[in-house]
Amino acid sequence: MAGSNQTPYYTPTSKPSAATHPFSSWKRLNLYYSLAAITFLCCACYYAGYLQHSSVGLRVSGITSNIASSTTNCFPSQNTTSPVSSSSSSFSSSSQLDFTTHHAAGDGEAVVPDETVKTYPPCDVKYSEYTPCEDPKRSLKFDRDRLIYRERHCPEQSELLKCRIPAPYGYKNPFKWPLSRDLVWYANVPHKELTVEKAVQNWIRFEGDRFRFPGGGTMFPNGADAYIDDIGKLINLKDGSIRTAIDTGCGVASWGAYLLSRNILAVSFAPRDTHEAQVQFALERGVPALIGVIASKRLPYPSRAFDMAHCSRCLIPWGEYDGTYLIEVDRVLRPGGFWILSGPPIHWRKHWKGWERSKEDLNAEQTKIEKVARSLCWKKFVEKDDIAIWQKPYNHLRCKKLRKASKNPPMCPAQDPDAAWYRKIETCLTPLPDVSSEEKVAGGQLEKWPQRLHAIPPRISRGTVNGVTAETLKKDSQLWKRRVSYYKTVNNQLGQPGRYRNLLDMNAYLGGFAANLIDDPVWVMNIVPAEAKINTLGVIYERGLIGTYQSWCEAMSTYPRTYDLIHADSVFILYKDRCEMEDILLEMDRILRPEGSVIIRDDVDTLIKVKRITDGLNWDSQIVDHEDGPLEREKLLFAVKSYWTAPSTQESHIS
Fold first, then answer.
1. Residue 412, CB half-sphere, CA atoms under 13 Å: how many?
2. Which range (97-106, 190-199, 213-222, 423-432) has the least confidence?
3. Which of 62, 99, 369, 423 would staple 298 via disulfide (CB 3.0–4.6 Å)?
4. Cα(619)–Cα(162) distance, integer angstroms
C-alpha cells in the first residue's frame, strides 16, 4: 500500500557483501551467470516457503511486510500506516531504534497509535505500583496464619488488566550504577515512610528530590560495608568459594548491594508488607531483588543453589512450626554453605532491653534455633558479638547414621528437590546426593569464582540434567557469545556502561545470555519457566549466576518498572496455546522501565503477531534478521518502550 515506507524488520549493514562471497573464486567467465542463477533460485525458494508457512501472511492489515536485506531485496515492499517511525531497508541499526534515554522528568505524553491496531489505554494512576500476584487487597482474602496471605495469589483470567501501568508523574531515569546504589529519585518511589520508621537505623534519608541510602541496617547502623567486613573476619569472602547468596527479609537490600563489590551475587527478597517499598527501593538502586516470603510454599529456587544465606533481624520465626523455615533454607543451601543470623535472639544478653523482650523469651528462642540447626546436622561455626554462623555439612553420611537414633525431622522420601514452583514446604530433610566417603562433597565440588562460570557444572558432569552434556554447554556458550555480540551491533547501547543495569532473561536455559554479559556492569535475573521441558536452574546457579522459576501465564513477583532490558528467547512458542500473547506482553510492559529495551527471538510468523501488539503498546520496534542471515525463519524483534507517565493533573504521591 502506498503512503508509507515503514519496514517491520531490517538487516544491519555489517552483513558480508557479494564481493566476499565464496563463489568469487570461480572463473571470471562463469561468475556473473552463477551469481544470477543462485540469486534467482534463493529468492524463488524463499518466497515460496514464506508463503507456504506463514500462518498470517505478510499482508495483514496494519502490519508492514517487506523483508529487508543488505544483499538482495527479493520482494517489493507492502506497507501500511504504522505508529513506528519509518525506515529504509538497508541501514545502520543505530539510525533506526533510539536506544538511548532522554527523559529526566516531564509529562511524557504517549504517541497516539494507528486506529487499525488494537490499543491498550493507560491504567488509572492508582495502579502505578500494581503487583498482580501480591495485591494487598486480594491478599486479605487468605489465611493470615504463617503469612500465607503474603504469598503469591494471582488474579483470575477475568480480572487481568488490559491496560498499561503508568509511571508516576515526574518519573526520571534512575541514576547510573554505581551511583544508583546510594541514590534514588523520590519521584520514582514516592514513599517517605521508611525515612521516619528507620531513621535511627540509617537505612534511608530524604534529601530534596531524592533518597540517599547510607548503607545502614537494623543490625548494622555503621553501614553494610563494615558489617560485611565483620562477617569476612569469620568466614572467607575473598577466595571465590562464596559466590551466590540469599538475603531473607532484605529491607532495602544494602547487604546485597555492598556484596557486589566483592563479586558475591545475592538474591534479596522481602514481602510486600508494611515496609511498603523496600523491594522497590532495592530494584531502583540496581540490586537484584524479588517480592517473596517464606510461608507455606518452597522458595522459587532449586536445591543447593546458594553458598550463603543471611537473616539480619528478618523477623522470621526460625524455631517455630517444627523448624519448617530453616528446613527450607537447608534445601536451597549448598553443601558446606553458611547460614548467618544477626539480630534477635543473637547476643540477647546485651540487647534484651532494647528489643523490649525478656531474657527468658530470647533465651528460649535461641535454644529452639540451636536445636533445629542440630537436627539438620549443621554445626555451629562461630558466634561473635551480634553475628552467629552455622555451616551445612558437605554430605549426609554421618547425618543418616544419626537418623537411626533420632528421626526428627525425617529424611524426605524420593522426590525432585529442585521442584519449587507452588510446591508445598515439607517438614523433612532434603537428602543430599550420595557420596562414597565423608571427605566428598555431595553433588560435586564447585570451582571457585570466576572459574566457576566456564567450568562444567556438577549437575551436567554427573549426568543429572536430561539431555545436557558438557558438549551441549560448550556449544551453547559459543552460540551465545556470537548472539550477544550481534545484539550489541544492533543495539549499540547494550555495550555502553550505565545504559542498562537490571536485566531479565525470560527463558534462560543454561544462562548463556547472562554469562556473556558478565564483564558488563549489569546483573541478569535468569528465568527457567515452570513449563520448560528441562529444569536447568540448578545449572545456572552452579555457574555462579542467579535466577528464579516463573510461569509467564502469571505476573512476576516484582514491581512495575523493574528492568532496563528484557530478553525473550522462544518464549511465545513455549506458551502457545497455554496463555494469551497479549497478557505476556502486557506483563513485560509492566515490569519494563520507560525507555527500557526488549529483545525477542522467535519464528517470523510469531514475531509479526507480537509486533502488532507492541505497536498497540506504543513500543518503537523493528524486526531484524537472524544473526545467520535472512534465510533463517527465526527473527529478532528489537523494541524500546516509550517514555510516558501519569498526567500531572493526577497526584501520584502515594505516601
1. 20
2. 97-106
3. 423
4. 16
Q: How many residues does the chain have?
A: 655
* Total Cβ atoms within 10 A of residue 188: 22
pTM of the entire predicted model: 0.84
pLDDT tens for 453-498 read 999 999 999 999 999 999 999 999 999 999 999 999 999 999 899 9
The b/e string for 143-172 (b: 16+ C-beta within 10 A; e otherwise) is eeebbebbbbbbeeeeebbebbbbbbbbbb
Distance CA 521, CA 499 (A): 9
Task: Calculate the dihedral angle through the C-alpha atoms of 463, 464, 468, 473, rounding to the nearest 10 degrees.
Answer: -80
User: Could you tell me the sign of the dihedral formed by the alpha carbons of 199, 202, 203, 208, in that order?
Assistant: positive
State the pLDDT at residue 641.
Answer: 98
Q: Which three three-digit cell numbers place residue 25? A: 573464486
Query: What letter would DSSP give residue 253?
Result: -
- Per-residue pLDDT tens digits for 559-589: 999 999 999 999 999 999 999 999 999 999 9
All cell numbers assigned to 311: 537473616
Q: Report H helices in 162-204.
A: 193-197
Largest CA distance in the chain: 99
Report which secondary-structure segment, H or E, holds 10: strand 9-12
**562 and 613 Cβ atoms separated by less than 8 Å:** no
Residue 542 identity? E
Q: Which residues of 57-91 are buried (b: 16+ CB within 10 A; e: fewer)?
A: ebebebbbbbbbbbbebbeebbbbbbbbeebebbb
d(C-alpha 188, C-alpha 173), whole Å: 9
